[in-house]
Amino acid sequence: MLRELEIEAKDANLDTVLDLVNGQLEALDCPSGIMIKMAVAVEELFVNIAHYAYGDKVGMAKIITETQDDPRGISITFIDSGIPYNPLLKEDPDVTLSAEERQIGGLGIYMVKKTVDKIDYSYEDGKNILHIFKAF
Amino acid sequence: MTINTKQEGTQLTISLEGRLDTVTAPELEEVIKEKLHGMTELIMDLKDIAYVSSAGLRVLLSAQKVMNRQGSMVIRNANEDVMEIFDVTGFVDILNIES
Fold first, then answer.
1. CATH of the domain at A52
2. Residue B98 phi, psi (nearest 5)
3. Domain total for chain A?
4. Choosing among B53, B86, B92, which should be mutated to test the A contact, i.e. which has the most A CBs within 10 A?
5. What domains sit in chain B, N to C, each tagged with a CATH number?
6. B34: contact with A, CB 8 A cutoff
7. A103 part of contact set with chain B, CB < 8 Å
8. Which of A24, A73, B9, B52 has the most CB atoms around its CB within 10 Å?
9. Is A45's pLDDT higher than 80?
10. d(CA A83, CA A52)
């Protein structure tokens, strides 16, 4: 099942994006633990676009979800036309540091990487294209 | 998200319901800023929290840093999914989590 959503990239629209992904996962009887992890991953990626892709302006994000049922899995693509940015080049945070030494940056994308089975980034025709896949 | 607070002397309990995410984390940050002054014990009850995103972790970390200076903080009733998030991000070693 293929679904596309084009929406203003802002925090207030997070629920609409999550509804789309949750609906797709529910239709496939996705285990709730995986639904929760995917919700965290989708939030991190959408919010990254909302906060950073267009500087202070609000721009558009396109989210394409595609599910498969044998084996079950979901593929989600996030597309924006903002500042070129490959989040996969960000160094993983040191998760062994103490509270005082801890820098919080980079934790979101790290959580995404730990959740999904596949993640890739490309920049094509002025667009950031980030794709994730999770089997379940 | 619903935020309930209970203050007994210098002990503050914050009970959360819902999702601790990008949209709701600033609300918690506001409550913490307002109520933490003079507290020596902070209890964060996550019993009804379904998940915590990095924005939520950021707020928990800053509360922990404040409490390291003025007392102690404990996390209670985190569910399995939330515990997994704490685990992956190394927060299990930073936060004082009661099981």
1. 3.30.565.10
2. -90, 135
3. 1
4. B53
5. 2-94 (3.30.750.24)
6. no
7. no
8. B52
9. yes
10. 8
